[in-house]
Amino acid sequence: MPAHPWQTESFTNLAPWYSVGEAMHQGAVQAYLTALFTYFQAIVASEQDSGILHHSVEDWPIIFSSIVMPEDQLHSLLRNAPASLSHLAVVQLPHQSTDIAYLGLPDGACVISANKCVGFGATGTQEELQVGISPEAYPVTLLAPPLKDRQVLICQGVEAMVTTKGHGRWASLDEILHGRPRPSSADWRNRVMLFMDALELDLVDSTHPHGGENIPDLMPGYLHRELVKAYTAFSSHCYRNIQKRYSFVTTGLWGCGAFGGNKRVKAMIQWYAASMANVPELRYVLGGAEQKEFGDELKRFVGWVAEHTGRELEPRKLFDVLVRLGTDIQNGESAVPKPDEIFEYVLKSL
C-alpha cells in the first residue's frame, strides 16, 4: 500500500510479521498468520448461500468510526457527575486470553489499549493481539491517522478467526475459531472494539518539582485527559446514533505497561468514566500470576468502597481525591504516596 498521507508509526503492509528481529515474538506472529490464512480459507470455502461472502454489506457491515469529544462539551462533562458508581467486576484468569468470553460479546464492548497510531505489530501487546486475530480489522492501521487527545476509534463487526493466550513474548495461538460451533451469544456483527490510547507517561519527566519522584498520572491536566478519553469511548454509542448503551465494558490494564501508567489511578479513572457513561458494569479482566496481586488488591478496594461508603458516596468524590492530590503535590503541599498505596490514600481521604 502507498505511504500514509500523515505522520504515523502504523504499517502499510504485513512486513513486521515476516521480518526477523528482537521485537518479533514468534508465538504471537504464528497466531496472527494462522488467523490470516484461516480467513483466506473461509473466503475460498464460502458458498452462495453460506459463508463469509454470503452476507451483504447491509446484513453484516464492518464499521470504523472516529469519534471526537466536542470541546464545548468538556466543561459540562466535568461538572455533571453521575448519581452512582457502575458495578466493577474483577475477572482473574490463569493467563491472558482473547477468548470469545472476553471480547465484549454479546452486547457490550471491549477496550483496546491502543497506541495513538493504532493497528497491528509483532510484539504481542493487547492491541496487536486483538487486531491480529481479526483480519477484517487490519484496515484500521491504513485508515486512521494518529488519535488526538479527545478522540477514539470504534470498530464494529469484525470476526476473530483464532484465540490467543499469554502476552508479549509469551503470547501464542490457543484455538482456531472459524468453522467450529460457537456460543449463540457470539454474533460477530455485535462485536465492538474501543480503541483508546493512554498517555505515554514513560516519556514524561517524573521528577517531583520539590524533589523526589512523582506519579506522572497525577500531573496537572493528565487526569482529565485520560477521563475524557475513556468517557468518549464508553459513551460512544451516543455518537453513533445507537440508542442502546453498552450493557458492560470489558477492560484491563490500560496504559500501565510500556506507557508507565499507575494501575490504581487508571482503574479509578476507568471506573469513574464508566459511571459517567451510565455503563452498568465495568469488567476488569486480568490474567497471569503477575496480574493476580493487583486483581486481589482491586477487589479489596471495590469492597472497601462499598462497605465504608454505602450508597451515599458520590462517584465524583473518588475522582476529586486524585485531582486534589495531584494539585497538592504540584504545589508542594502534599507528600507523594507510594505508587502501590494510592487506594489506601483515597480511602483515607474519603
From TrEMBL:
<dbReference type="GO" id="GO:0004649">
    <property type="term" value="F:poly(ADP-ribose) glycohydrolase activity"/>
</dbReference>
<dbReference type="GO" id="GO:0005737">
    <property type="term" value="C:cytoplasm"/>
</dbReference>
<dbReference type="InterPro" id="IPR046372">
    <property type="entry name" value="PARG_cat_C"/>
</dbReference>
<protein>
    <recommendedName>
        <fullName>PARG catalytic Macro domain-containing protein</fullName>
    </recommendedName>
</protein>
<dbReference type="GO" id="GO:1990966">
    <property type="term" value="P:ATP generation from poly-ADP-D-ribose"/>
</dbReference>
<feature type="domain" description="PARG catalytic Macro">
    <location>
        <begin position="111"/>
        <end position="290"/>
    </location>
</feature>
<dbReference type="GO" id="GO:0009225">
    <property type="term" value="P:nucleotide-sugar metabolic process"/>
</dbReference>
<dbReference type="InterPro" id="IPR007724">
    <property type="entry name" value="Poly_GlycHdrlase"/>
</dbReference>
<dbReference type="GO" id="GO:0005634">
    <property type="term" value="C:nucleus"/>
</dbReference>
<dbReference type="GO" id="GO:0006282">
    <property type="term" value="P:regulation of DNA repair"/>
</dbReference>
<dbReference type="Pfam" id="PF05028">
    <property type="entry name" value="PARG_cat_C"/>
</dbReference>
<dbReference type="GO" id="GO:0005975">
    <property type="term" value="P:carbohydrate metabolic process"/>
</dbReference>
